[in-house]
Records
---
Amino acid sequence: MTIRTPTAALTGDERRPGRAHEILWLVLVGLVVLIWLGPVLWISNISLKTRAEIAVPVPSFIFRPTLENYAAILENPNLVRYAANSLIIASVTTVITIVLASLAAYGLARFTFRGREGLLTWILSLRMMPVIAVVVPFYIMYQRLGLLDTYAGIILAYLPVTLPFAIWLLYSFIRDVPVVLDEAAMLDGCGPWRTFLEIVLPVSLPSVAVTAIFTFIVCWNEFLLALILTANRAKTFAVGMSEFVLSYEVLWGQISAAAMMMLLPLLVIVYLVQRHIVKGMTLGAVR
Amino acid sequence: MARGPGGNWDRFVPFQFLAPGLLVLIAIVVYPTIAIIQNSLYDWNLLVGNRRFVGVQNYASLLADQIFLKSLVRTSIYTAGVVSAELVLGFALALLFNRSFPGLNVLRTLLIAPMLVAPVMVGLTWRFMYEPSIGVLNYLLSVIHLPGLRWISDTATALPSVGLADVWQWTPFVFLILLAGLQSIPESIVEAAVMDGAGARRIIFEMQVPLLSRVILIVVLLRVIDSVKLFDLIYVVTRGGPGNSTYLASFYNYVVGFTQFQMGRASATAFLIMLMISVLTMLLLRVILRGERL
Amino acid sequence: MSFEDEDRHEAFLHSRREFLRKSLAVASATTALPLLSPLRAAAAATQRVTITLWSPAGQRFGKANAGIIPLFERAHPNIKVNTVTTSIGEYFPKMATEIGGGSTTYDLFQAIPTFVVAFASGRKIVPLDDYLTAQEKADLDADIPKKYYDTFKFEGKIYGVPNDSNTQWSFYRKDLFRQAGVQLPKAWDDVEGVVKALQKTGQKDGTFAYTASLRRGEYAGAHFSTIFWSHGGEWWDAGFRPTINNDIGKKTLEIMLSLMPYADPGSINATEDDTINAMGSGTAAYAPVLWGNSVLTNPSLAKRGAQIGTSVPPRGGSRLASPMLGGLAYMIPVGAKNKDAAARYIKFATSRQIMRAWVKNTGQPARVSALRDPENLKTGPYFPTLAQALQQGHPQVRIAESFQLLDALGNQVARALTKEVTVAQALQDIDATFTETLKKGGHLK
């Protein structure tokens, strides 16, 4: 196990730093992550407490844990449905976004043509529009098209939110892929499409993975459009969560349990997808 | 004519790649875009429904509104502070994680957790932690014999407190992108520099940062845009208070549209906010690119 | 059981009853065909109709409706009621968008009086006069405090019928007052003295003397208005010239500022939920102006429930208090598909007979008879205070721009309270904003 990064120079070691050093580094990183995760740990702490224990004036770390909050969530058929809705909507939107955005990013990154800068600017400007002003026009438009409270409706509404962001991210990453790769493939007789599909895309997999993660998260967490454009059938988890905030109190135990139950599968999905990022180490193998 | 890898191409070629995405985008946004521009020229009460043409009156009234102007200033300061913090922290974390050994994968995934927690929950959690008497932050401070702070109950500390929650939530985003960037720098270049005897500082600042400049630019652009549009946290944690201390531009927009139900004025507000973002972005592009091509 | 548990339990019982009723209906229809009396035949021939009711989730609204719907469906077997509830924070923006956008999804919904003028003048809701008999109208007029019921009428027609009412009044800790040796202040001039005394005794156990809902916008605006109106002030005169920038306005802001040093730290950004929590958890001793709710006097919901007393807010000098009126009423949108059935539900839910069931299911009635009913006082011991406060209450302004004005007013009040601007500056800015808005709306020439 060797560490070949400039930070190795920080510790003065070069090739084989030795196990002790690596373990120390792991501990340091672990500590950073632990502190950073503090609030998340706090959420999990609350999710295991009874209602009475949560309201205690002094926060307690030693208590008798209970699973009643998690049980309440699982027994709530609505929440499970909202989570399923969010999963479907986020996944479909992410797939569509990645496909359309990687194509567009390739076109923008590899070719220069008149209007390219203008196009890039226009795409970015879409992201600048605050959602609030857009919500009511969308509502009126959807009312006429019958798209209110449908999967298709909310997915279409999310695309203008996710596409500009994905296009810009992928554009930036593809620009960093050396053009010599494309040129080598074309010398071999590949057209632009084959070059894109067989050379550029595989090499950009880490960036695609990162973009996919972010797109998914954006869809998952989006609130205002989901609130106004969905009612009961297509209601998302983000909107459903807000219903734990009652008039006179927040159902802390249950909302924490719901948050944790959503967080864990998401973490697993992210873990599976982002393993590809590590492969970036071999990117330099052009020569 | 379009220039591409290896020479000139027919203009149709890039169009093929761009068409699907662009067509979808245009189809969806054409009506809302026209609607917003149009709405901003009308006085439109959402509840009553009838619209009255008022020309630029909405814009004039907004530009004369002290509260709106102050919210713009507040938003600019907030954005500058938050994005700088995220950039520095994110880069430090990326450097920390820019190696490979077992377990790092898991830790890296865990670090993304703040972005994955539902925004409502993030807001509520920090609000709870910020409670002066029963919140965990003041409790921890008391354990090490420090006085508790007033966090979101005081006009002076409310905005930084919101900023802290924001930085906590979004630094992982910056971290991940910068890490992907760092890891795409060919190993051979780094090794060569190390062999030449370059110290860590030189490697980081004179090699990695310049190579990453485009990625850093994109990240900063995206974060600036998102910070100016910040809404979720304000909505859940402070709703603009105490007083007006966390009344940011996007929340002002929400209040005009959904508390005052003035849709015309809200559209005009959105337009002005967009304008501000464009100006900021333009400035940033000029500074970071310094003449380089995009 | 948590609220959600109870809701689901209700739904479960409801679906069981549904099943039983359905199978009974099928059985009787098939086996009793030759024995059908003309009456039964008539009932069987009536169309089954489903109406959708939209209300905020939780106490007083969603829960209360859920409680009486089974009773309604038993009395009207051909009408089924579907409920949609949205958490109250998100309810109003969504409701405004949908009803303002002419939605056809809902047959009836609940809203506060400030929506009536805008919706009615925009023809988004239908007048309910034709659905009520003369007797019913007379009964409602007699039993609901006139000032409150009038807030749901517009241009001589009834647009909303309430079975819920709310206004602001005082909540105080009887034990802490006794400890400090003070009485509940009768007028605003006496409040600071009482609060000072409470502060002295409260220092020992860390309780704050005063708490209020002072968040920017509608909260600070409502608090200000109650004190302002109690002193005889009005937002504008007969010609719509704003009259807040005067001595009464100045005095109101000064009263509010004078109490800030004794307030719990959360007050400055508190909504009524936060203030309720402050009182209920024992953090504060006295909330002179707070939107009504049942939590505080219910020992099972609030730690010090039994110790909390209620009273109408303090007088403004010799004038009786004029707290702001709130409360929700049922309205029927123009796009409703089953207006007759919806009206039937409204009549049922606002009738005298249903009030006991309503209160038992966490409702907070508008009918004076219900507020004085000894049976109901067991659940809501503060009802007499509410009844009194309703009689004295002051309606919110009756123009379509009321939302803007209340928000702008509250914004400036919050700025004054946090010392971002001086009292004089705040009053001037309120005056300027009001003038601009009233002129734009064509009210002020």
---
Amino acid sequence: MLKYIIKRSLWTIPTLIGVLVLLFSLTYFLPGDPATAMLGPRATPALVEELNNRLHLDRPLPIRLGYYLVGVVKGDLGTSVWSGHKVSELILENLPHTILLAFCSLGFASLCGIFLGVFASIHKKSKLGTAVGILSLVGVSIPDFVAALLLMLLFCIQFPLLPSLGAGADGDILDIALHLVLPSLALAITWIGYLARLNRQSMFEVLELDYIRTAKAYAISGKTLFFRYALKNAAIPSIAVMGMGMGKLLGGAVFIEIIFNRPGLGKMVVDAVYGRDLPVVQGGILIATLMFIITNLLADIAYAYLDPKIQYD
Amino acid sequence: MSDIVLTENKMTITMLKPSMMERIKGGYKAITKSRGGVVGLSLVGLMVLCALFAPYISPFGPDVQDIMGRFSGPTAKHFLGTDYLGRDILSRLIYGCRIAVLVSFGAVTMSAIVGVIIGVAAGYGEGTKLDYAVILLFDIVLSFPQVILALAIIAVLGTSLFNLIIALAVTAFPFYGRIARAQTLSVKESDYVKACEALGVGHIRIIFRHIIPNILTPIIVCVGMDMATMIVYEAGLSFLGLGVKPPTASWGIMLQNGYKYIMTSPWMIFWPSLAIALAMVAFTLLSEGLRVAFDPKERKR
Amino acid sequence: MTAKTLLGVNSLTLDYMLGSTRMRALDKVSFHLKKGEVLGVAGESGCGKSTLGLAIIGLLPEIAEIRRGEINFHDDDLLKLSREEIDQKIRGQKITMIFQNPQNALNPVFTVERQMTDILRVQDKNNGRKKQSAKALRQKAIELLKLTGIADPAQRILNYPFEFSGGMKQRVMIAMGLSSGTDLLIADEPTTALDVTIEAQILELLMELTGKRKTSVLYISHNLGVLSQISQNIMIMYAGRVLEMGPTSQVLGDPRHPYTYALVESLPSKHVRGKRLLSIPGHVPSLDRLPSGCSFHPRCPFAEDECSQTVPFTVEVAPGHWSACFLDQKRGRQKWQWI
């Protein structure tokens, strides 16, 4: 098991280097003079010169790449062009909110989705099963930001039940939790629909397999059959797909944070894009991508744990 | 001699490769077998029709303002109501089909072509430096969450319809590339390709006549799903103001307007949401239908 | 039904429904099985032998619909029992089944110990026995593995299925099949997917264990050679019907039905050198389009008018020896001269 973990982790290194190079080259592709582009209408010769010095924009490409990489390793991701704060500080401020949101959504969606999928496969002929099937189709079809807007419409405007904006007062757990309900739900809806369909299909396939026939031949049935014998196998594709789910979730978090006006990585990056604050954009995307890579790695390891065969491939 | 030998001599193996027309007809018949496929196909057809004939179908132009009648709910004159400038929502929805179809077709076509070319090249030269480089390239691009990568590219290139298509295409091409590469690898090992190689058939010929037709099936299914996601991404990025520029009628822009006026008029948000959801349902059902149509196991049902 | 008859199948008829297409998988199949007897069920692929096994143990797929018939086991008609009753009293205990391909027969994410103890636990529960401790169950499982010739069972029981070879997996299946003192073991081509040398070992093991325990065996196979070695009685099936049935030595040594004759003659045998192997022209009919009358008549060179008009009855043509052929019944024993 350990060997597999090491092998798989090592593979992320060249990818990570490629990611850094790609991110760095964003500045390279800016049309025109980078400093002017970043400063926009505020550009004066003095400011441009200062920015050039600060970001080493007038040096040749390899040197700039070098500065950037060294900075990353040291934990210095540059400084925001607008606010002057260090990018790493901004990230540390915003990241926890996004992580909280992501975990709530992913956790809720996984439990719900897998359970619904198994449920649909058990009751496949009854009306309940069809209902779940339709619900999951709806879930898959509604993108997260659309769901967020509709939820906000329904639960904040039409029936004012839940708070709509912000993340809740610091330190007040109940308030924070209330503010998390709609955003997590919005993010989770697509995922629940997808996982429900995936697990339903996966259960059908697993239930056709020989070892289920063996179990049935020895009078193993009902809940034991579905939940222990079948599910542990059927859920494996869901775990594999979780890693990708985090990526979609991070992408969706961008919209959710803007719509619900929550602090977070997504909002930070989008605001930086509006303001052409490239260091913040680079830093934010780097962290988001890093999170994605790590969750993919963890998903692969969990997958190998659940299906022992994979380790020996 | 014995009958068995004679019979073998008489047996001829005829490999019938169906022509393109036959394939399309077969595909059409197969999709219509499942109810979902029919619904999906009709909805997509409806969208395409709206996109093509928008000026003839929609009751008003997308920019025609009726300030006195703004924020109205559904009325006889404006079936779906009006937005904050009094523009007819139904008309804007129909014109929005244009943007949706244009962006999704454009981005998907671009990414599919680029992805397939790179993927097939890598798969055909399995184990070479090119192959490793391509795998690494795919992994790197796929390490970014799609939306975030698109954001970054737009941040650099600027906001416009064309840049949007480019950004989306870049985030999507590795999906097609991976599929193309995996399929190329397996087709390469099949007997008839090996026979072609042994006969000295040129590589290009092998690729175009044998490999590409065989990878089409999963690619087409992927295209179906991808169109849906592209429409959603266009809407999302336009919603953020990073997609098409207002006052273009795009569903995303309509959502952006609706968000600003969420307290005043729920209709501004509701109708574009419904449109986006329906578009997704349409493409999901269509690609499910395609998958079922091409899956040999399901064919027998 | 005499006191010693364990299993009595009467006129079992069932269809597979594929949409609106009806495939008659079994047609009026009847036979008896005594305690301790090994009955071979022979036939080509698709003749219904596996379906018969599945019907007895109650594991038919959903598309199967039983039209008529009885499966009498001990005092019950299995077809009249509910699924729960079968689970509780019969399946996995009194009637067990081992299948053809052991490769995927064990759940890949559980250890062998886990699967065996699960089954033992279910057996205990269904019998109203006291729950045994995990240790006791593991011990019993290890004993069972030792019984079926698996080396170092205490260690191997902790392995996952993918760490076992095909032959070893089949031994595990046999161990489970005999774990409860079963009365009837249905073996559906258990050695077909194994190497020939392993096949011989598994066969010997199976026969030894079932012989010792006086377990009845319904051995399903297309391999007449194997059946001739292990079964006392044999049943020849074709397209869902029983064509001939009786003591193995008689049926195979002196076949009454043209089909049986052709099957036997198509085997390479060291006794007949230089003679061309017989191959039956034509192919097995599709079960949704069975020929009228005798289902073999289109391929039978001796067929007469009657054969295509009426389904032959199964008649006892010699003591304990039944055949379903008009010509045999009319003319008595004869040498079928195939071209």
---
Amino acid sequence: MRILLVEDDLMIGEATQGALNDASYATDWVKNGLTALATLDTQHYDLVLLDLGLPGKDGLDVLDSIRTRNNPVPLLIITARDDLGDRLRGLDGGADDYLLKPFDMAELLARIRAVLRRKGGAALSVLDNGLVSLDLISKQATTLENSDVQLSSREFALLQALMIRPGAILSRSELEDRIYGWGNEVESNAVEFLIHALRRKLGSHVIKNVRGMGWMVSKSV
Amino acid sequence: MDGFKKRLRDSVQLRLSVTLSLAILIVAVLAGIFAFVSAFDEAHEMQDDTLRQVAVLFDRQQVSLHYPASQEVDGDNEESRVIVQYLADGSKAIGNDDTLIPLPFPTTLADGFSTLNVTDEDFRVLVRTTARGERIVVAQETGVRDKEARESAWRSLLPFLILFPVLLLVVGDLVRKLFRPIAALSADIDRRDEQALHPIDEHHLPTEIRPFVVAINRLLARVAQSMENQRRFVADAAHELRSPMAALSLQAERLAATEMPGPARERLLPLSRGIERGRKLIDQLLSLATAQASSDRPQTAVSIHEVFRRVLEDLLPLAERKRIDIGVESIEDVHVTINEMDLLLLVKNLVDNAIRYTPHGGRIDLSVELTRETAILQVKDSGPGISAEEQSRVFDPFYRCLGTDEAGSGLGLSIVKAIADRTGARVRLSYSDEMKKSGLCVSVWLK
């Protein structure tokens, strides 16, 4: 895997390149937008990490140039600009993800893996948050204690809804929407019943209740 | 008396009123004296004129004088009577009584006016030598003359007596009215809060104080500019510090991933924690600078429960680490019109604070309630609470309550206050449990 890092800050560039090398990614580091475009013309990369505040040519312009040349390389923006307009312009302009400085290396690596996975076209067949993994094809869940627990289709639908974005809180009505199709009669306490069943099968710590708000599974660790 | 002198020295309004009143009083008194004296003299002159005309009349008509023998004539009054007699008859006077003529005038009198005391009464006397060579005396008692002159003099004072109080009232009222815009202006400026540095409206103000107001406006503009510069400096500094801090924390993370002996790993942990704390502090500084920036941000209808949810998603790991039971108490959601980022930052800082200062196994409740016009948002925790003495200070940047070993940035409540000030919200601190005086309850009235 070869990654192009476009970053003008020496300290961050050094640290990021080092960490990426540690994680076994071959990393080339350029410090301005024009060099980045020239390098992309001559060399194939599996992923670009792009800073927005670049000397010479702004990061968003670099992104624009890459996309108008029909280069589909996966691209992740890393920036200190936390304003919503820039974020939207970046994502609309063809970036695959957007990460705000300062960031944790672990998070950057996770985002890189996610972008590569999506771009690789390999349909995601397993959802995993570190505590529990859910096989989307066999509808089996695996935790540290129990492996390959078979779930009913409603239990599976509920757990899947929570596992799509670990850490997100879903309310009762949102979960009901996911479990029941249009026109199905919603049984009262169905959500509590299913969560009770899931906890019994997988352990009580798997699904957490947030008082007054809803339920969630823990964010990936 | 000293107090009055000081007030007189300090107050233009009082000085103006007093000076004008004194000026009016002095002018009125002088003019009054002059009018009195001249009216008095005028009256005497007119009376002398009458005596002269009577003498001339006798002279021209060549009237021979007969002294009536004490019979009453209708309309006669002894007091105001004009007496005419031959001067030579003075020696034939019957007695020492002014009701009977001839009166005993001394026969040696020279021609012209004089004032004499005859029969114990003062008389104004005119002696004239007629064409026939007789000397006649025309006389009148001075008592009645003076009385009439005084009356006419007093009458001439009447306009001043009316004018003086009226003028005083008019001057007092006028001065008060003229100074009213200044009083209104100062009350207006007094009501401003410290963030309101917009210029004072200088229209509708008297030209005399307009230059003063223009100068104040220029000062306000300079203060606003310097505050803005300061805020921008903090924002820029925080922003610039972010990159090296990010690099530092990345390097620490890399270091943690390498093989290293146990003691080294032990020492790496506090280092990483220190870096983490620095990062957090810089983030909070940047948030505070952003919160204080006065730029207008787009407002939309924001669901408070949605904001609660996003904040809880963010901060739940922190709460779980301390086994804190955190949740939302209110069932009904409320929508308010506000900038979403502002509200998010406000709630996030309140909840972050609550988690920080609530002990292990504690409880935090979020709620929102709609009253007539406002939405009241509350964050209650089961921590130690903030004493009444400290409640006003905790909004100061970098202030931390004594006796807490929590490594917070000390900026959380400052950020909350800055956002509240800018969005017109009101923040109040109290105890969650008023009886036990424990637990912090932060209530925010959103507009």
